[in-house]
Amino acid sequence: MEYSEQRIKIAVQKSGRLTDHSIDLLERCGLKVTRSKDKLICYGENMPIDLLLVRDDDIPGLVSDDVCDLGIVGLNVVEEKRLKLEQEGSKGMFKHIFELEFGQCRLSIAAPENVQYDGPDSLENTIIATSYVSLLTDYLTKNSITAEVVFLSGAVEIAPKLGRADFICDLVSSGNTLRANALREVAVLLESEAVVIQTLAPLGDEKQALVDKIIQRLDGVLKVHDSKYIMLHAPRSALPQIRALLPGSEVPTVMPLEGNDDKVAIHAVCRENVFWETLENLKAAGASSLLVLPVEKMLA
Ligand code: PRT
Ligand code: ZN
Predict the structure, then answer these.
(1) Ligand 1 pocket check for 7: Cβ under 6 Å
(2) 87-100: b or e for each residue (b if 16 or more CB lie within 10 Å)?
């Protein structure tokens, strides 16, 4: 394939927790790519968009250096890189533009179960192991704490057991790993999820229009998550009560029913799941012929 500079390059994690979600999401935005586990690049078949498959830690750098126009990566990795560059006196050439509602986790300090923790002061003059040196150093500086930060690239949780650290600072999602290592979460430094970052280098009108289109589609895909289309019949007099019962809905469409002046048909998009209890409450308010449908796409 001849490579055109007008194609958008998106850096995506090659193999890890964010990979499937990232590619699925782009596919739900209409992008068709030939997936290949061993290749560095997946070419878009129907849009001028290609995916660069790399380690997540490299994504902010690739976007900052303008090798890629966009990147999908955890906010934890973005913030660590941004602070690292700042601490080195330079500036990240990327901006965080969109949250993707997956990959949720938090960067937390954890203490061994038998060690007392009474707030950040308990960290004074201790050793803390982490893969997130910049985020942790920033937290300690902001809290005026002097502590030794030890970098570990993996298996941070076992550092206290091995006597290499008093505390750790690592990502937590369910908390099972901490519990399995007799640790407890004592402070949250950052709430994280996957985000889209964009290079600060100007893209040109054509590429920027394509980026805007992808973001609009991502927004549409995420908005329909949990959204339902609900249809029902109801007495005209019950309309205010029915409207109040529709979860997260905008103004519903109300239509007359042929040959029945007292009843109307109501259609509404509910931006939350519609549970059986809601249907039962709607029925008790006079609704009948209730139908709930999934929403596939939405464009505001
Ligand atoms: O090879 P590459 O460098 O690309 O991958 P990686 O091993 O660095 O990253 P990966 O695939 O493990 O995670 C990618 C991203 O997923 C992270 O940067 C976060 O943004 C996000 N994420 C969400 C998580 C977790 N949840 C998570 N629980 N990343 C890591 N963990 C680890 C955590 O480090 C700890 O070891 O899972 C363990 C804790 O999980 P719980 O559920 O036991 O609390
Ligand atoms: Zn990584």
Answers:
(1) no
(2) eeeeebebebebeb
Of 12, 171, 193, best ligand 1 pocket probe by most atoms within 8 Å of the beta carbon: 171
**Residue 48 belongs to what domain range?**
8-103+194-223
Report residues of the chain scoring pLDDT below 50. Answer: 1
Residue of 273, 277, 279 whose CA lies nearest to 291? 279
Residue 262 shares a structural domain with residue 217: no
Same domain, 212 and 250: no
Q: How many CA atoms within 13 Å lie on the side-chain side of 80? A: 22
Both structure tokens of 222? 């995420």
Proximal ligand: closest to the CA of 172: 1
Q: What is the pTM of this model?
A: 0.86
Domain total of the chain: 3
Between CA 91 and CA 19 the distance in angstroms is: 27
**Looking at residue 237, what is its pLDDT?**
95
